[in-house]
Amino acid sequence: MPFVIDPNGLFAAEVHADQTLGERVGLTKTPTIFIVTHKGFVEVNDVTQLYAMLDTAIAENPAPAAAKPKTTTAKR
Questions:
Q1: Angstrom distances, CA of residue 62 to CA of 31, 39, 49, 52, 68
Q2: What is the Cα–Cα distance from 11 to 47, expressed in whole angstroms?
Q3: How far apart are CA 32 and CA 47, in angstroms?
Q4: How far apart are CA 25 and CA 17, in angstroms?
Q5: Residue 35: helix, strand or coil by DSSP?
Q6: What is the mean pLDDT of the segment spanning 17-41?
Q7: What's the CA gap between 17 and 12, in Å, rounded?
Q8: Which residues sit opposite 42 in a β-bridge?
Q9: 3-state secondary structure of 15
């Protein structure tokens, strides 16, 4: 069946290239999920803990306060 879907092997070549890249950077499983903040990153090893880990990351890394927009007064 794969030869019908990917007769020239292009899809298989892309998948193999992605797999090779993952191995080169140390990824050993899929899916691999990272939570990245300005303080660093953490890998999610247990997907059932994803939301708890996101809540922790948000609590430990609050968003910067938004700058107040500058207002101008029009002179007539």
A1: 27, 11, 20, 16, 18
A2: 28
A3: 10
A4: 13
A5: strand
A6: 90
A7: 9
A8: 35
A9: helix
Q: Tell me which DSSP letter residue 67 carries.
A: P
- Nearest CA to 37 out of 12, 62, 68 is that of 62
Interatomic CA distance for residues 41 and 36, integer angstroms:
4
| For range 15-22, the mean pLDDT | 93
Residue with tokens 């300005």: 38
Give the pLDDT mean for 45-61: 94
| DSSP state letter for 76 | -
Q: Over the stretch 61-75, which tens digit does the pLDDT of each residue have?
A: 888 776 566 666 666
